[in-house]
Amino acid sequence: MEARCSSCFFTAVLLCRLAGMAQASCDFPAMFNFGDSNSDTGGLSAVFGQAPWPEGETYFHSPAGRYTDGRVVVDFIAESLGLPYLSAYLNSVGSNFSHGANFATAGSTIRPQNTTLQQSGFSPISLDVQYNEFYEFHNRTPVARQKGEVFEKLLPKEEVFSKALYTFDIGQNDLTAGYFMNMSTSEVRAYLPDVLGQFKNIVSYVYSQGGRFFWIHNTGPVGCLPYVMERVPIMASQVDHVGCASPFNEVAQDFNRGLKEVVMQLRQELPQAAITYVDVYSVKYSLISHPEKYGFKHPLRTCCGHGGRYNYDIHMGCGATAMVDGEEVMVAKSCDNPALHVNWDGVHFTEAANRQIFKHIRSGLFSDPPVPLSSACLRMPPS
Ligand SMILES: *[C@@H]1O[C@H](CO)[C@@H](O)[C@H](O)[C@H]1NC(C)=O
Ligand SMILES: *[C@@H]1O[C@H](CO)[C@@H](O)[C@H](O)[C@H]1NC(C)=O
Ligand SMILES: *[C@@H]1O[C@H](CO)[C@@H](O)[C@H](O)[C@H]1NC(C)=O
Q: Which residues span the membrane (predicted)?
């Protein structure tokens, strides 16, 4: 603490303030998550079919509704809050919602898309739909709990909704949606205010349902992901020193600046909310730009895929099979050691990378205000 106090005055002031506040630990009894594949724990799988093997191989040893070899960042968040992993709201088999629910689905966008999953790959469960689900969940829970027995055990008490942590990790697909429809970077930029406006509305709707504590991830460096680099052509001069495509990363950073602005507006408009903005972008970019520092060998090349510069082929995603001599064989297999890869399948991060991301963001060093996850319920007075 002393070393920090002398190295950074503002952090010192905050830490000292925190130390003086009620134990600085929030005891969140539940978590409600909204998002895309970065935080899906089974939503898309429940509706459109299970993500295939080798998804889940490292940690769950079988597919577990996640688009990675193991856990996603919200799993690590839940674990550190002392909560079981979140059941997907859409998963009606074996779910326990007493400690929260996960509304995220892979392929989700903030704005509803005007295409089907089959046409574009984007989920119909956009953020507005996720909010509708949450609204239903919140309003039907007390009615169901009155039936007692298992309903009481599998659903949260009313008071949990105002004490829970509400997490958001969404926006990446809104950026790629435009590019995949052949829009230029300036066309994508032009619709960002609409996307951010819709995001802002949803957070205030959750507040109106009693939500108070918000943990909002910004969007990652999409220009470092093979599925973007392989699909959207750019010029050689637009590749940065790490090997990422700058135009997409610049748009992601534009989105993030706008998101931070939205968070500041929400703090004004929702006086009882504690809203933490979390700079996941910087952590993800560090893993890719300094892989060896975090124990990785391959920053861009995927672990699970087939062919090409990045071991990624859009037509043969992770787990894809083909008929060879009348036998079905897996063509897009996973690598020997996923923990050496930052990227799992061209789109998503490996469990090892997700663990690193969590390790960095939990401390508060990448957050505004710079409070640790365990203190995200504290409303920081303006410094
Ligand atoms: C649901 O999860 C909670 C922990 O959050 C646990 O105490 C409870 O026993 C679980 N209920 C059932 C029926 O498994
Ligand atoms: C979908 O279409 C509606 C009506 O034309 C339009 O307002 C909306 O912006 C479109 N959404 C997207 C993501 O393009
Ligand atoms: C985008 O452009 C490519 C190449 O010209 C074309 O094959 C594809 O159909 C276009 N996609 C859309 C959604 O217009």
A: none
What pLDDT is recorded for position 380?
78
Active site residue 290: no
Task: Estimate the crossing angle of helix 351-361 against helix 73-80, to 10 degrees.
Answer: 50
Confirm whether 310 is domain-assigned: no
Question: Residue 76: what are its φ and ψ, rounded to 5°?
Answer: -65, -35
Among positive and negative, which fits the CA dihedral 61, 49, 228, 86? negative
Whole-Å CA distances, 16 to 12, 39, 310, 371, 378? 6, 33, 47, 11, 13
- Ligand 1, atom 3, lies closest to the CA of 98
To the nearest 10 degrees (0 to 180), the angle between helices 246-269 and 280-289 is 160
pLDDT digits (tens, 9 = 90+) for 232-251: 999 999 999 999 999 999 99
- Cβ neighbors of 123 (< 8 A, separation 6 or more) are 36, 44, 105, 106, 107, 108, 109, 117, 173
Residue 84: which domain range? 27-303+348-373
Positive or negative, the CA dihedral 42, 221, 341, 117 is positive
Active site residue 345: yes
- Tokens representing 316? 């043969």
Length of the chain equals: 383
Active site residue 375: no
pLDDT at 17: 56
Domain presence at residue 42: yes
Residue 241: is it exposed, middle or buried by C-beta count within 10 angstroms (0-12/13-18/19+)? exposed
Band of the pLDDT at 31, cuts 50, 70, 90?
A: very high
**pLDDT value of position 25:** 86
CA 264 – CA 249 distance, rounded (Å): 23
62 domain residue, yes or no: yes
> 115-153: per-residue pLDDT in tens?
999 999 999 999 999 999 999 999 999 999 999 999 999
CA distance linking residue 251 with residue 186, whole number of Å? 9
Among the options 217, 298, 348, 360, which is catalytic?
Answer: 348
Which residue in 40, 69, 174, 345 is the catalytic one?
345
Q: What number does the ligand 2 atom closest to the CA of 174 have?
A: 13
* 184 Cβ inside 6 Å of ligand 3: no
Query: What spacing in Å lies between the alpha carbon of 151 and ligand 1's midpoint?
Result: 11
Instruction: Quote the number of domains for the chain.
Output: 1
Question: For position 77, which CATH number holds?
Answer: 3.40.50.1110
Residue 381 lies in a domain: no
